[in-house]
Write a structure and sequence with these properties.
Its EC number is 2.4.-.-. Keywords: Glycosyltransferase, Membrane, Transferase, Transmembrane, Transmembrane helix. This is Glycosyltransferase. α5 crosses α11, α8 (about 210-230) runs parallel beside α11 and α9 crosses α11 (about 285-315). The protein is globular and about 70 Å long. Strands 3-2-1-4-8-6-9 form a 7-stranded mixed beta sheet. Strands 5-10-7 form a 3-stranded mixed beta sheet. The longest helix is centred in the last third of the chain and has 31 residues, at about 285-315. With about 325 residues, it is α/β, with parallel strands linked by helices. It folds into 2 domains: about 5-210, Spore Coat Polysaccharide Biosynthesis Protein SpsA, Chain A, CATH 3.90.550.10; about 215-330, no CATH class. It is built from 11 helices and 10 strands.
Length: about 325
């Protein structure tokens, strides 16, 4: 008998994180699932880690040449057996009630596709907690990604995404886009009149990037991807997507104005103070509050510069689709 859920995990050189994720899967209260781990051309494989969990769960391991996360998810989906596919990033950890929360939501109301929010685990480093704040706070536009109050409708993201297997296959899975492929997939879900819902109780702990340099690369690529998506689906561009670019231009203008009137810097200091106070309270740490100021500026200006750069190349110069930092996507 086939399982109800197939957990698809693409991985690249992250055996320790895969171990944490699989350990959390082994403690799920809902047991009707299989796990499909796909190694995307790693030089540090996780097969030994996967083998450790063979006695306690239905798990299969595959390896392939590196092609990026989208194609790797498709590879795993093609070899899955479940009625629903759940796509997880390898740097996630699940609470023991994660699958039970998904089951309860689907029993309450059917969904063709769904997703859940993310949180910072107590074991995360202060930088990881600061980055998590920047990616989930209303003050950085991150709050639209997985909260009940959003400035745009909910688009599942690939770190925590579920979809009916037949819907996944009918849509052809993830596209060839190197970045933004999860939003591209979500857009196609909506275009095909599928029912898509946020499952607030199906949250994960998500480690994200481990330093600000890697975080900048991630969000810069996201800004570029937003313009690439706009060129494919013009109606997908919303006001909220412009805010980081507006913020980035505003920062530059304030810094230039400060050469004449130093008092203009108070605008940036006020924003930094709001971030510091809010994050310090939420994380119960002044140090994380300080780091969150840096994370917020990296998140907004990283995305904003990527967005503006892609806008210039694709909308003004009429260049073809492109992305940045491809060789270091996972780093």
């Amino acid at each position: 008998m086939n399982p109800k859920y197939s957990i698809i995990i693409p991985v690249y050189n992250r055996p320790e994180e895969v171990d944490e994720l699989l350990e959390s899967l082994s403690r799920q209260t809902f047991k009707d699932f299989e796990v499909v781990v796909v190694e995307d051309g790693s030089s540090v494989p996780c097969k030994a880690v996967v083998d450790k969990y063979l006695p306690v769960m239905d798990i299969r391991y595959y390896t392939k040449l590196n092609s990026g996360p989208g194609k790797t998810r498709n590879y795993g989906a093609e070899r899955s057996k479940g009625a629903y596919l759940i796509i997880l990033d390898s740097d996630c950890i699940l609470p023991e009630g994660y699958l039970q929360a998904v089951e309860i939501e689907l029993e309450k109301e059917p969904a063709d596709a769904f997703g859940g929010p993310d949180r910072a685990h107590a074991s995360f480093t202060p930088v990881q907690k600061a980055i998590n704040y920047a990616m989930t706070s209303f003050f950085t536009t991150g709050g639209i990604r997985g909260g009940k109050k959003k400035m745009d409708k909910f688009y599942p993201r690939s770190f925590n995404m579920g979809v009916r297997a037949d819907v996944y296959r009918s849509l052809g899975g993830f596209s060839d886009m190197r970045f933004g492929e999860d939003i591209d997939f979500s857009i196609r879900i909506f275009k095909n009149n599928c029912r898509c819902r946020l499952f607030p109780g199906a949250w994960v702990w998500h480690k994200r990037r481990t330093d600000f340099r890697k975080f900048f690369k991630q969000v810069h690529n996201s800004g570029i991807a937003r313009i690439n998506l706009y060129k494919k689906y013009p109606e997908s561009l919303k006001l909220v997507h412009l805010l980081p670019a507006v913020f980035t231009v505003g920062v530059v203008l304030v810094l230039l104005a400060a050469l004449i009137c130093p008092w203009s810097l108070l605008l940036l200091l006020f924003f930094a103070l709001v971030i510091f106070l809010d994050s310090s309270v939420r994380n119960k740490s002044l140090w994380i509050g300080i780091l969150s100021v840096g994370a917020a500026f990296v998140q907004l200006t990283g995305y904003g510069t990527g967005f503006l750069y892609a806008w210039w190349k694709r909308c003004v110069l009429r260049k073809e689709s492109f992305s940045a930092f491809e060789k270091s996507f996972y780093k």
